[in-house]
Amino acid sequence: MSDATGSPVEFARPDYWPDACKHLSKRDRVMKRLIPQFGDSCLQSRGDAFTTLARSIVGQQISVKAAQTVWDRFARLPRRMTPANVLKLKVDDMQAAGLSARKIEYLVDLALHFDSGAIHVESWKAMSDEEIITELVGIRGIGRWTAEMFLIFHLMRPNVLPLDDVGLITGISRNYFSGDPVSRSEAREVAQAWEPFCSVATWYIWRSLDPLPVDY
């Protein structure tokens, strides 16, 4: 598979996935039903931190299809999708790709954080989920939900529970409460059985709503 620039994209798979599936199937009746439906499919990471976050900014508040179209246009502008190359782009060219003035500001701020070393990529392995979230939300245009998606899809942290995610709450409602409205506290209570693999359970809840795997 190739990205929008024609470069090959290599996907990584989490080592903990088989153990997580066994754990969840034992602890949770819904997971025991859902997991076998999706065979060998699992969470995958693109492996590039800057690209993952840039894609999340481009995709904010627009449909998945529209986001892909804008991303494809934007990704052709730099020779390679790097912070330094994005900082060299002209605003007019970025606007022509379909980016709003605000998203351009966000992408420039993201590139500045990476280019200046304000983001401690090399330290992330030793940092907790909350420490990384705190660092990421210091970038304009990145809130807690985006940071949690980054933890799940890029760093593949096993125990992230994104309670601000509409799909997760909807999926819990349908799978555990017969479609009745679900509060954050009720969702957190359901997720107690998922520990320490909330990311994996969340991925299967998403699949119960949309069988096509998501990647960021």
UniProtKB/TrEMBL annotation:
- The HhH-GPD domain extends over 58-210
- Looking at the keywords, is DNA damage present? yes
Per UniProt, which keywords does this protein have? Answer: DNA damage, DNA repair
Record-level Gene Ontology MF annotations: alkylated DNA binding; DNA-3-methyladenine glycosylase activity; DNA-7-methylguanine glycosylase activity
Q: What reaction does this catalyse?
A: Hydrolysis of alkylated DNA, releasing 3-methyladenine, 3-methylguanine, 7-methylguanine and 7-methyladenine
Annotated EC: 3.2.2.21
Judged by the first EC level, this protein's enzyme class is: hydrolase
- CDD domains associated with the record: ENDO3c
Q: Note whether Repeat occurs among the keywords.
A: no
The protein's matches in InterPro entries, at most eight in alphabetical order, are given as: Alkylbase_DNA_Glycosylase/TA (IPR051912), DNA_glycosylase (IPR011257), HhH-GPD_domain (IPR003265)
Provide the Gene Ontology terms for cellular component.
Answer: cytoplasm; protein-DNA complex
Source species, domain of life: Bacteria
An example of a Gene Ontology BP annotation on this entry?
DNA alkylation repair
Q: Which family does it belong to?
A: Belongs to the alkylbase DNA glycosidase AlkA family.
Identify this protein by name.
DNA-3-methyladenine glycosylase II
Native species: Ramlibacter henchirensis
